[in-house]
Fold this protein.
Amino acid sequence: MTFVVVAFSILLLVLMIIWVKVEPFIAFLIASILTGLFLGIPLENIASSVQEGIGSLMGALVIVITLGAMLGKIVADSGAAQRIATFLMGRFGEHRVHWAIAITAFIVGIPLFFNVGFVLLVPLVFSVSYQYKIPAMAVGIPMLAALSVTHGLLPPHPGPIALVAQFDADMGATLVYGLILAIPMVVLAGPILGKWPFFQTMKIKPLEVFSAKPLPEEALPGLANSLFTALLPVFLLIALSLVKLQLGEDSSGFGFLVFISDPNVVMLISLIWATLSLGLTRGVKIQQIMEGYAGAVKDIALILLIIAGAGAYKEILVDSGVSAQIGTALEKLPVNPLLLGWLIAAVIRISVGSATVAALTAAGIIAPLVMAGGSDPNLMVLAIGSGSLIFSHVNDGGFWLVKEYFNLSIKQTFLSWTLLETVVAFLGLAGVLILDLFV
C-alpha cells in the first residue's frame, strides 16, 4: 500500500505541473502534505517535516547557487565569455569551428546556467553560421551539447549541487568524476553528432531579433583574466580536494583547508575575485555590479523554490519511513543501483519536463539505498544527473528556448534538441557504469 501511495503522489505531482499548470514549488508542497497524510504522519508533524526538508536542503545550497548565478552574470556582462569565444574561434579556424564552439560552450557552461550560457552564445553561433556558410544547427549542436552536459553533471549548477547535498557526496570528487565523464560526452554528442548529414542539410533562418550585438573588441577583458575568472571555482575545488587527500586530519592546517575548500567559501572567493578583476579594476561602478547581481538572483528564484519543494517532499518520505522501505526493496532488485537511479530520473524527466525536478525527486527516492552504502554517492549524482536530461519535449522550457531562438518547427526541434538530449543521457549512463568498474 505504501508504494501505491508514493506512486500516486508522483503521479499527482506530474499532473499538477503538466495538466493543471501549477508552479512546481506549490505542486511539491501540496503533494508533500497529501503524501504525509496518506502515509500516516501525525497531523501535528507534517508542517514541521515540510519545514525541516526545506530548511536542511536550502541551508546547504542557497549560498552556492546564488553566488554561482552572480558569478555567471558578471562573466557574461563583462564580455569575458565573448573574449574566450573569440580567442578559440581564431585558434581553430573554419574547418574545426565545431570544436571551437564546443570548447567555448564547455568553458562558459561551467560557471553559467544553461539559459544564460545559451542566450550568451547563440549570437556567436549565428555569426559563425553566417560567416562560414554553415547550417545553424550544425554549429548549434556542439554548443547545446556542452551547455546541457555541464548543466546536468557539473557543480556549481543547481541539480548536481543539490544531489551532492542529498547524498552527502564530496563536491570535489564529484566534479573530478564529472569532468572525466563530461569531456567524452561533449565530444560525441557535440562535434561528432553535429556532423550528422541531417544537421548539415537542415535549412533554417534564425530570427534577427535574437541576434544580440557583441561588445566592441576594446571593451573586452584580457584573455588570461577571462579564463582564470570563469574557471576559478573549478580550479579551487579540484586543487583543494587533491591537497586535502594528502593531509591527515591531525595536520595543523587541516582545519583551515576544510574551511577554505567548502563550496560556499570557494564560490564567495571566486565572486570577490570576479567583482575585482572583471568589474572594479576595469572602471565599473560597484552599484552597477550589484544591480547585475540582484538581477541574477531574480532569475534563479524559481529554481531555488523548486529545490526547496523537492526537499519538503523528500523529508516526508523519510519521516514516514517509506523512504527506508523503498531503499530496502530496491536493494533486493537485481539491478545496478546506478542504472536504477538513472531510470527513475529519466521517467520523471519525461513526465515532468524539468531536469531539476526529475533529479531531486529521484534523489529523494534513491537516497536510502545510497546512504546504506549500495552505491558510490559521487557516481549516483552523475547517474541521476544524466537521466534527468533525457528526451526533452514540449513540457520542458529548454525545448521552446531552442525552438524559438533557432526558428525551428516542432518536428525539427524533436529531431535536433530532443535527439541530442537523449543521446547525452545514454552516454552519461554508459560512462557512469564504466567509471563504476574502476572507482
Residues 381 and 387 are 10 Å apart (CA to CA). The radius of gyration is 22 Å. The chain has 21 helices and no strands. The mean pLDDT is 87.
